[in-house]
Design brief:
22 helices, single chain, 2 domains, mainly alpha, 2 strands, about 425 residues
Amino acid sequence: MLENSLQKLVPFFVKFSNLKVIRTLKSGFIRTVPFTLIGSIFLLIMYFPINGYNEFMSGIFGENWLEPLAKVVSGTYDILAILAAFALAYEYCKDEGLDGVPAGLFAISGLIIFSPNSAATVSGEVLGGILPLAWIGGKGLIAAVIAGFISGSLYTWFIKRNISIKLPDTVPPAVANSFAALIPGVVILITYALLHIIAGAITDGTVTETIYYWLQIPLQNLTDSLPGVIIMAFGVSLFWWCGVHGDAIITSGILAPILNSNLLANKAIIDSGGALIVGENAKILTEQFTLFIKMGGAGATMGLIISMVLFGKSQQMRQLGKLGLGPALFNINEPLIFGTPIIFNPILFIPFILAPTINAIIGYFAISTGLIAPFGGVTVPWTLPAIISGLFIGGWKVALLQAGLILLDILIYLPFFRVHDKLLLKKELEMEVDLNA
């Protein structure tokens, strides 16, 4: 019945998906898939979750064996905002039948204008003239989206109205196009500068920092409670659905001090010989709790990837399922998020939000009612597969709970996935008919 109800909403989903802003976001972020896929492979090699792996690799390749791999990861994940800014502006113009390269390059300039050019060292010394990677990676994705759309829309507006410097036809096209970009480029960069001034006047920070820190305000008072757990699970997935690194903003950003302090509080109780008792001294919302909501990656997408592998009909979903299963086992799902795509996909919005949120609620009540014990000081790498991670942090009960949640997530994702898969299969069949015509 749920699937039939969703089928009735397909026309709305299709109309929503065909909005220019949605088309641009989808096609723009898909352009970044090769980088996230390559980065995830190297990330997996770096943090393969078996005991003694690092020592084994160090014995073969030396103590600095991680350094070149980290460079590759940095050259993919850590510049994702730059890649997205260019891709979004490029795709916006391409959708209008224009050359999107100039707009893409201006979008990169805009992201640099938006971002901080200084950073504080551990000792507190402020270093100027640098571009912190944090702001051109996950933390800068919202700013990248804004920069991309500003550049793409303004560049399109000027070129479509022939408001540009015209050179004789005898001038080579590459040179002529460069001069044609001057007038829109000046206006675009002035717009970025004005936004920088406004952000500085309001918050005494850059545009990227303003966006980043203003998103934190509604979440700063989160406590160790069911509403806090729900907001965390819901928020991470919502940001990811919007194409923003939800973990960087919430679990690794805003909530990091809370998660770490709760973890240390539980550890201190155990170290002192005490018992963790919910409602008296134990904390529920710790770093380990996120293992319930990120099985397979953000959005608890292990349920989705299994649905792809077992029930996929379209070639795109079957192929993506095969490619994404390996990384997903280790909770790396950027290729899945940007390749399906999940971002700005109205069909998959509900399960992408619902699955981790339900997981969080069940996990919270499992701990608060004593079915499983609160987590102590044992932590595991986030790349450790579900069930195995549960064994390490809480024993067989936690592992069994994770297994049950994965089965539940499959049931949550499956009806929505089938709708999405049928649409893709229909398009593939139509393309096949056109090719054979």
